[in-house]
Amino acid sequence: MAEGKEKIVLDADVIIHFAKGEMLSSLPSVFPECEFVVLDIVRHEVKQPTLNQLQNQIAFLQNISEVTFGETQEQRVEYARLVSVVGLGRGESACMVYCRYNDDVVGSSNLRDIADYCDKYNIKYLTTLDFLYYGIKRGVWSKEDAEEFVDKVNKRGSRLPSVDFDCYVCKKMP
Length: 174
Hints:
The chain is an alpha/beta fold and 174 residues long. The protein has helices at 12-20, 40-45, 50-61, 73-86, 90-102, 111-120, 128-137, 143-155; strands at 7-10, 35-39, 64-67, 105-107, 125-126. The chain contains 8 helices and 5 strands; from the N terminus they run βαβααβααβαβαα. The protein has a 5-stranded parallel sheet with strand order 3-2-1-4-5. The mean pLDDT is 90.
């Protein structure tokens, strides 16, 4: 992993969306200045066939890395609190705790579970729609590509709102 690069730590929901939308391999192109990572806990949550796509990308494209979560006692204690006391999911909890202690960005669309915690600890986060928005703005995808992506993901069992990307407002990346 490159030292000094801000990391975007992907949760399972974003990985699944981009796999279903057939754009997982181009996702890191949206923020080439950042390192995209998947925590080992999150990788264990991702099911087949998305897991195959993710593992191939980690192994061959090398634009997403896997990182082991919980290197410090403080992180493990906070993770356990979020999972057992607060009742949050393992993946979201691991991503938020990792980013809190490493000053990185959470990539998750589960705003109900992450927004309050991230806002409380000034953790930046991006949703699937935010990635699409920045992908359009940075010329990675067209607006039509993003709209087709949302339709495809929804037809494959996920729930993303249809939005007008010309009017979309999202968190600002530095």
